[in-house]
Design a protein that fits this description.
The protein is of the alpha+beta class. Among the domains are: 50-165, Phosphorylase Kinase, domain 1, CATH 3.30.200; 170-373, Transferase(Phosphotransferase) domain 1 (Transferase(Phosphotransferase), domain 1, Orthogonal Bundle); 384-431, no CATH class; 675-786, Tetratricopeptide repeat domain (Serine Threonine Protein Phosphatase 5, Tetratricopeptide repeat, Alpha Horseshoe), CATH 1.25.40.10. It has 35 helices and 11 strands. The strands form 3 sheets. A 6-stranded antiparallel sheet has the order 1-2-3-4-6-5, covered by helices on one side. A 3-stranded antiparallel sheet has the order 7-9-10. Helix 25 runs antiparallel to helix 26 (570-586). The longest helix has 27 residues, at 409-435. It is elongated and about 105 Å long. 40% of the residues are buried. The model is unreliable at 51-65, 233-248, 375-417 and 433-445 (pLDDT under 50).
């Protein structure tokens, strides 16, 4: 029997071993193989069945006598075999340890299956060559996501072995299921797998057998690539190796060119990564090759297109609840990314594992991905090339497409105006960016300043086009609220709301977004009842217009809850946050977005206010993990969460830990907002308030003064936070022995709070606590108050 025949035998044997032990013989019958091939594989299956319960429990069927296989307790080189931990069609892996006990080290020891050592001499030589190849390749790789090789050699009876780093973990799929990872977490984990593959490619090594079982994830959530046994370098051109390689690859994950026995590049691994990602997200493989003959499986891989992820999930083994949750997290961009990775033509795939990983990063960040569907012309041309005998039908189909295109030309006329409008808006935005260029502006402006200058040009640039100016005013106005330019924001949002209602209608989504922006502005202006009425109006109009699947609906509910939260109306806040989460779930919105993380964070703050500290802590941890994933370098929402979690930590009596969280929040706010902003004021005051009781009071006096001075500059409307900052300064002054200064500052805080429409109990109580402290050292008019 030659090498090619032996390759076919062992390929079928490998597939048979994937079946349950009791079904292997029946599976073999169903394959309808040539008699000589069927008989040879059946003999191997029978021999394997005698090995299931131990090492060489019975004689193996082989062309030559197989060497004696090591058993548990035997020594191989410097290592002792402990137990079998895995096996495949070609090899067996054992847990081992240092035999001399010089130091404690568990290892994975891989040996060729004894039954194969009795194969034809030429094929046996190939197997040994494979082990030597794997050892040589792994010696070139040193990466956190690739299992390291430690040693290797040949047993006294001639069986090759490899000693590798022992990864105490689960296969990629099993780990994700056990940890109940959502789609976002699975994508993040998969990107680490891509990093390992990219490292191999950097060394010109193609793995050629990427699949979930060859990726183990340890307890720390770190994946490792295993089994480079059939990997080859791009420098190698061994034609005879192609036949042998077919016995070792896993057809379900193999690329079309790998199945065709073509020369392989790193693009083949990219294809396999696409298959792994598909299964990781949907719970099923893109192609069901069970019960197919090798020829049928080959045609399936060459020609079939996998189902979209959401449809594929319906075929998974997930229960109904998990299936619905999974579907709600899947987005079309993931289908596009997988389609590009698994394209039948290697040239149309991602150029590298790194490029695939970077597109997944764009998906996670909410940015446009590079992957996009094939053009209609490309799909038609591929159809014609696959169906040359039906060229008349294909030509007719092409004519129909051309006819449909002609019928759609009238839409192009409408699209022309839309294109002109888009060009006008883009030109305006480019002008905004140029305003921040010191070569054009004469001096360097920030982008915020450039936006303020651009607002003055809207009437001139979009005269007679309120439909366009309304959208631009809304964007600039919303930005101004975030930057606390409230007076300027009011001018822009008022015009945007009026023009949107006139141009698009009261219940158009663009009008409702402007209404939500106006509600947020009124809240920041210290008009909570006006803001509440606007939020409620927006919610009612969204429901009336049947737009409840739009993210605006979740935001309106969440922002109304946040308004109640700032007023410490915790029960009312919780109702709105829970409504928002339910609406988000019904709409199938992603649970890994910024909006969702903020909902969890605000709900945590609510549970804290209601005294449910454990629930609050659990919610904060979930929200913080999501925000840190979205913004590793921090963002305003994460800064707010750190502040609120610090308040929870204070209430649990861990003041030093709370102070550290407050400091992290302050540092993040300064990095994001720069020198002056209400967000910075709040954090400065919290650090000063807590530090005065944990450190030398004099060390925080200047910080408290700076916070109060900044508050006076940035707060133009009555707002509780303004008063609270001055209460903090009074408290710090009192701790430093400046009783008179504390009194004066306390009176200023009282005056500020009296101007506030809705006074939060926490601020009222803080003011009273400081008054009591003052009165312990001083007797005056305020000490007669209650």
């Amino acid at each position: 029997m030659n090498v090619s025949d032996e390759a076919q035998v062992l390929r079928c044997f490998e597939l048979a071993l994937d079946q349950p032990a009791g079904r292997r013989v029946q599976w073999l019958v169903e394959q309808r193989l040539p008699p000589w091939l069927h008989d040879r594989v059946q003999r191997l299956i029978e021999a394997e069945s005698r090995l299931e319960d131990g090492f060489l429990a019975g004689p193996a069927v082989a062309i030559e006598p197989a060497p004696v296989f090591p058993k548990e307790g035997d020594r191989i080189g410097n290592y002792e075999l402990l137990s079998e931990i895995d096996s495949g069609g070609m090899g067996v892996v054992h847990l081992g340890r240092r035999a001399d006990r010089a130091y404690e080290l568990q290892v994975a020891i891989k040996l060729i299956r004894p039954i194969h050592m009795g194969a034809a001499p030429e094929f046996r030589r190939r197997l040994i060559e494979r082990f030597e190849n794997e050892r040589a390749l792994l010696a070139r790789l040193n990466h956190r996501n690739i299992a390291r090789i430690l040693d290797g050699g040949t047993t006294e009876t001639g069986i090759p072995y490899l000693v590798m780093e022992y990864v105490d973990g689960r296969s990629l799929l099993r780990y994700c299921e056990e940890q109940q990872l959502d789609v976002r977490a699975r994508v993040q984990l998969f990107r680490q797998v891509c990093a390992g593959v990219q490292e191999a490619h950097r060394h010109l090594i193609v793995h050629r057998d990427l699949k979930p079982d060859n990726i183990l994830v340890d307890a720390r959530g770190e994946p490792r690539l295993l089994d480079f046994g059939i990997a080859r370098t791009l420098e190698e051109h061994d034609e005879s190796h192609a036949a042998t390689m077919l016995t070792l690859m896993t057809p379900a994950y193999a690329s079309p060119e790998q199945v065709r026995r073509d020369a392989l590049t790193t693009s083949s691994d990219v294809y396999s990564l696409g298959v792994v990602l598909y299964e990781l997200l949907s719970g099923v493989r893109p192609y069901d090759l069970r019960d197919l003959t090798p020829a049928q499986a080959e045609r399936m891989v060459h020609e079939a297109q996998p189902l979209p992820l959401r449809e594929a999930v319906s075929k998974s083994k997930l229960d109904t609840g998990d299936r619905l949750a999974r579907v709600s997290q899947l987005r079309p961009d993931l289908d596009r990314i997988i389609a590009k990775a698994m394209h039948k033509e290697p040239s149309r795939r991602y150029s590298s594992a790194q490029e695939l990983s970077e597109d997944l990063s764009r998906f996670l960040d909410g940015r446009p991905v590079l992957a996009h569907p094939d053009s209609a012309w490309y799909r038609i041309s591929r159809f014609v090339s696959r169906n040359r005998t039906g060229s008349a039908v294909a030509t007719l189909a092409l004519l129909l497409v051309m006819t449909a295109t002609a019928a759609a030309l009238w839409q192009a006329r409408q699209a022309t105006r839309a294109a002109r409008d888009a060009a006008a808006m883009n030109a305006f935005l480019l002008d905004v960016l140029q305003m921040s260029d010191p070569f054009d502006a004469g001096s360097e402006l920030t982008l915020s300043q450039a936006l303020d200058e651009a607002a003055k040009l809207i009437d001139e640039r979009f005269a007679g086009r309120p439909d366009l100016s309304a959208q631009i005013r809304f964007g600039i106005g919303y930005s101004m609220v975030s930057r606390y330019r409230l007076e300027a924001a009011e001018s822009q949002l008022t015009r945007a709301l009026a023009d949107s209602a006139s141009e698009f209608g009261r219940n158009d989504i663009r009008t409702l977004r402007a209404l939500e922006g106006m509600a947020g502005l009124r809240q920041e202006q210290g008009q909570p009842r006006v803001a509440e009425a606007l939020f409620k109006e927006g919610i009612a109009r969204v429901e009336a217009a049947s737009l409840t699947s739009d993210p605006l609906y979740f935001n309106l509910l969440g922002n109304l809850g946040n308004l109640y939260l700032t007023e410490e109306k915790y029960e009312l806040a919780r109702v709105q946050f829970e409504r928002a989460l339910q609406a988000e779930s019904r709409a199938g919105a992603s649970t890994s977005t910024l909006d969702h993380a903020n909902l969890l964070s605000n709900l945590a703050h609510t549970e804290h206010g209601l005294g449910h500290l454990d629930q609050a802590d659990a919610l904060y941890r979930r929200a913080q993990a999501a925000l840190q994933t979205l913004y590793p370098d921090g963002n305003p929402d994460l800064a707010i969460l750190l502040n609120n979690r610090a308040l929870l930590t204070e209430d649990r009596g861990h003041e030093a830990e709370a102070l550290e969280l407050h400091k992290q929040s302050l540092s993040m706010r300064r990095r994001v907002f720069g020198a002056e902003h209400p967000m910075i004021v709040v954090a400065m005051a919290n650090v000063a308030r807590l530090s005065v009781h944990l450190a030398e009071p004099s060390s925080v006096l200047q910080l408290a003064r700076d916070a109060a001075a900044m508050a006076d500059r940035v707060y133009k409307d009555p707002i509780p936070r303004h008063a609270s900052v001055h209460v903090t300064l009074a408290d710090v002054k009192l701790a430093n022995g400046d009783v008179a200064g504390a009194v004066a500052t306390w009176l200023r805080a009282k005056e500020l709070l009296e101007a506030v429409e809705s006074k939060p109990p926490a601020t009222v109580n803080y003011l009273e606590r400081v008054r009591v402290g003052i009165c312990k050292q001083w007797q005056g008019e305020l000490c007669q108050q209650k």
